[in-house]
Design goal:
The chain has 4 helices and no strands. It is an all-alpha fold. It is flat.
Length: about 120
């Protein structure tokens, strides 16, 4: 009874910590790609920015789409996805990356169980 709950709770904590570590690694990778893109020009810059955006945006956009199909339209993932896509629409890919990066960084501290992919 009680022992099983403790084991499950410990396992949940381990999973949360592992997810938090993955999220932090992902954010470090995105930050490095973003910083590297500042120092390069042309097509390489564009490719790096697209990679950074895909890495930081995939989970948010996929969660937003899942939530829409569940009837939860105006949640924060939808609003963040919309903001980033709006930034891309007006030609501000750097802004789109920064917005989602900061959003995910905040979530790491607020709720460590938010997963990477």
């Amino acid at each position: 009874g009680e022992h099983q709950c403790d084991v499950r709770h410990d396992k949940d904590k381990e999973i949360e910590q592992e997810n938090k570590k993955r999220e932090i690694v992902l954010l470090i990778v995105v930050a490095c790609i973003y910083i590297l893109s500042i120092f390069v020009k042309g097509d390489i810059k564009g490719y790096l920015m697209c990679i950074a955006y895909i890495l930081v945006a995939f989970k948010i956009i996929s969660t937003a789409l899942k939530n829409i199909f569940r009837g939860n339209i105006l949640d924060e993932t939808f609003l963040m996805a919309l903001a980033s896509l709006g930034a891309i629409y007006i030609g501000q890919l750097e802004e789109a990356i920064a917005v989602l990066f900061l959003y995910r960084l905040r979530r790491v501290h607020r709720r460590p169980s938010y997963y990477v992919f």
